[in-house]
């Protein structure tokens, strides 16, 4: 059995342009509460369902960056760092941004767990 090569077909239609809406994104740094959106048993209603932001992926055009909060290193605990390709820099504060693409939150219960349990 032999397979005959066939020419590749290409389309002449122009590619659709992707356009994202650039809007200010307001998001809580601490105390994101999801309790109103969860089905909880009577026993769990009093539990804390608050989360704190610990990382964010940003998108500007087609360029991604990340901002992460140091949590385990005592020297940098609580400080924010910007990861941009090979460059890492400490930033003074995190602000709401139009470039926020993905937000990562952590439960305070996970924050308090020792490293060995994670």
Describe this structure as you would to a colleague:
By secondary structure, this protein is mainly beta. The chain has one domain (32-117). Helix content is 4%, strand content 31%. The protein is built from 1 helix and 6 strands, in the order E-E-E-E-E-E-H. The protein has one helix at residues 108-112; strands at 32-33, 50-60, 63-69, 80-84, 87-91, 100-106. Strands 1, 2, 3, 4, 5 and 6 form a 6-stranded antiparallel sheet that branches. Strand 4 and strand 5 (87-91) form a beta hairpin. The protein is flat, with a radius of gyration of 22 Å. The model has no long low-confidence stretch (mean pLDDT 73).
Classify the beta-strand content into a percent band: 25-35%
Helix segment tally? 1
Q: Low-confidence parts, pLDDT < 50 over ≥5 residues?
A: none
The total tally of domains equals 1
Straight-line distance between termini: 55 Å
Mean pLDDT score? 73
Can you write the helix and strand succession as a string? EEEEEEH
Q: Biggest sheet: strands, sense, closure?
A: 6 strands, antiparallel
The best one-word shape is flat
Question: Any idea what the radius of gyration is?
Answer: 22 Å
What's the quaternary structure here? single chain
> How many distinct beta strands?
6
Q: Helicity, in percent?
A: under 10%
Which class of secondary structure composition applies to the elements? Answer: mainly beta
């Amino acid at each position: 059995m032999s397979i005959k090569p066939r020419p590749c077909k290409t389309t002449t239609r122009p590619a659709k342009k992707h356009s994202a809406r650039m809007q200010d994104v307001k998001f809580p740094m601490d105390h994101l509460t999801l309790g109103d959106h969860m089905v909880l048993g009577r026993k769990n209603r009093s539990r804390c369902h608050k989360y704190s932001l610990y990382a964010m992926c940003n998108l500007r055009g087609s360029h991604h960056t990340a901002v992460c909060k140091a949590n385990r290193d005592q020297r940098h605990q609580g400080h924010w760092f910007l990861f941009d390709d090979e460059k890492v820099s400490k930033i003074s504060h995190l602000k709401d941004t139009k470039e926020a693409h993905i937000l990562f939150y952590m439960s305070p219960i996970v924050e308090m767990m020792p490293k060995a349990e994670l």
